[in-house]
Amino acid sequence: MRSVDQHGLPITNACAAGAAGYDAYVGEFLSYGANLRDLFAVADAAPGAALLNAHAAALHLAFEGAEGWTNAAPYLTRMRRAEKNATERERIFAAAVEKWAARDYARALEALDELTLRWPADLCAIKWGQYHAFNLGDQETILRFAERARIVFEDRPYAHGMIAFALEQNHRIEEAEEEGVRATEIALDDAWAHHAVAHVMETQRRAKDGVRWLDHCAHTWEKKGVFIRDHNWWHAALFRLALGREEDALAIYDEKLWGAWPEFPQEQIGAVSMLWRLEMRGVDVGDRWTPVVEQVRRRAGEHILPFHDLHYLYALARAGERGEADDFLSSLKKHAENSSEPYHTFWRETGMPAAQAVHAYAHRDFAGAAEYFARALPRLERVGGSHAQRHLFIEAYETAGAATRGGAGKISGPANRS
User: Are 55 and 94 in contact (CB under 8 A)?
Assistant: First the structure.
């Protein structure tokens, strides 16, 4: 039995209802919709469909916490059993998910690169490819995937948002804004396009334009998933910070950035990032660290993404119990030492210096922080995250440098206990 998706690509061992469910999932995935989890029931009803179960596993892994690996396990088992009857495209996608589950993100990306070169109509695989390239700090590959999307999906919803963000991450700023605006003309609710244009405006230091742009788009986010709602509001708060409106940023934090899904790693790192930025501007954030740290300490020892680890480490060092940050750093060092290539080189050259910088900064060792940040910054993109997200570490580097020179950098909050 074989059905096809809306683009004519086959789905082995899926009935018409399964294909329709897959199409609905793709639409939700590309638009950052709130009903992505509906895919699990679709995959449960089609245990012999390798592609459906591979995507269900991918969705769990994209939670970016240990629970995701646990919840992905049954779908991975079904995927493996069904692969022998799958098409070559489906087997390549399954191979990518297999590598992802093994935390070999570089090989997962390689598989998706091959798949989308041969089947550029698979826009969902292109989006997953961009996801992995982003986490690996591979901006050129993000753009390569975007150009494949353009081949088949010119003037189709959500493709131009993907193109816009890829252009922005490759410093093609004017083109990125044009693509982002075009995306919203095609689909007003393209929240990833809203996000891409916000990046452009931040890069060009157009904070007032950024506030107006995101406030204009925000009404479409209420029907979206938690990640994009949180993240676009995070950008809205950044623009307020750029305008010196710290109290407005703090209000956005309280109303939009924390509490929707505290167990979600992306919500955790967004909270850490914003609280750290606020404190660097001298804002008293009160007891807001407490619930964040309660969630973050559950991530100790996971070491799923380096970008997350840096945020978890800072939260524990800033507001954790005595010794927690030291234990986390020791665990991270062991993880780095045991990693294979290309990850071992990354950790030696960039990841561990960045972690030591974060740890030193939180302990008010500003000379040490500045020294370690200086070692990490030349290849900082390899920790993952966007330019805007990584700018946190540049701010910390500059603040540490100013403090070392006896400057007047504002640093609030008590010295850490750990």
Answer: no
